[in-house]
Amino acid sequence: MPGTSITPRRERAPFPAPSLPPLRSTRLLDQLRERIRFLHYSRRTEEAYVYWCRAFIRFHRLQHPKELDAKHAVESFLSWLADDRGVASSTHRQALSALLFLYGKVLGMQLPWMQEIGRPRAMRRIPVVLNQDELARIFALLNGEHRLMAQLLYGTGLRITEALQLRVKDLDFDHRALIVREGKGGKDRVVMLPESLAGPLRAQLARAHVLWFADQTAGHGGVAMPDALERKYPRAGSSWAWFWVFPQSALSPDPRSGVMRRHHLYDQTFQRAFKRALNAAAVHKPATPHTLRHSFATHLLQAGYDIRTVQELLGHADVATTMIYTHVLKLGGGAVRSPVVALPQPKAPLCVHHHP
Question: What residues are paired with 189 via a beta bridge?
Answer without folding.
Answer: 180
